[in-house]
Amino acid sequence: xxxxxxxxxxxxxxxxxxxxxxxxxxxxxxxxxxxxxxxxxxxxxxxxxxxxxxxxxxxxxxxxxxxxxxxxxxxxxxxxxxxxxxxxxxxxxxxxxxxxxxxxxxxxxxxxxxxxxxxxxxxxxxxxxxxxxxxxxxxxxxxxxxxxxxxxxxxxxxxxxx
Length: 162
Description:
This protein is α+β, with helices and mostly antiparallel strands.
């Protein structure tokens, strides 16, 4: 009988690949939204939430590096997901970053006469799920390569010859 084994490296590898694909697709979608917003083709795109394309670009890079199982991909992936988890909005302040895909659960609090002060607090469960998968696979990622550049490989080969 087949059963699901949580500590199986194959299962963790599939989970990491899913997070990598999610980050790449989300980042590419965010970059396309950024381009539409920057060119003025749509007034409905909130460029500050996309960090003017920086967060989607970081998401694509994190996904590619994570797919290659590089240490930079792990760190960048965790950072990208951490930035997207909180949802905090007021009339004067917003901490609600997106790469493109988001599944937030939020609540609105009103204070004062006729809801003079409105605060939205929430959590992006899609980013939280991706972060939890990354943290679950953390032990397997400790052996990730620092880089796959030819220079580091050549230096490593040169030091072995000596």
